[in-house]
Specification:
By secondary structure, the protein is mainly alpha-helical. It is built from six helices and two strands; from the N terminus they run H-E-H-H-H-H-E-H. The protein has a two-stranded parallel sheet. The chain is elongated. The termini are far apart. About 15% of the residues are buried.
Length: about 140
Amino acid sequence: MGTRGPIGKRSEERMGHRSKEEQNAVTKAPSGAPVDLPDLPDADPLWHPIAADWYLSLRESGQAAFYQPSDWAVARYAADLMSKVLMSERGPNGQLVAALNSVMSSLLTTEGDRRRARMELERKKPASQGDADVTVLDDYRSAFG
């Protein structure tokens, strides 16, 4: 999958001394729900609400654009396992939780997992951010200009 060790910075946070080859090695995808998702089964109504929320959140995540049918099957398996862990009367089992975290990592569900795999979801920028920067500069010029 990815590398071990500390999670690297996002490409826009790194210094400009990287070669073009290193910069292009990062796969970028838009954040948010992919437009061409296949018909997927709904969350099982018997699942724990946290497991159902996690499974449904994958549909809204940018990395889902790379999922194949087998990845969706793994996601359902992980949600089912998560549900069983959360509803267990004995409480969470450390080995089971570790296995579940491993399955979730293989689906690149966290920012750290994606960075280790050299994949980034492009963050949506607020529409008014550019206007705010200009306003601040205009105020500065008025005050000191």
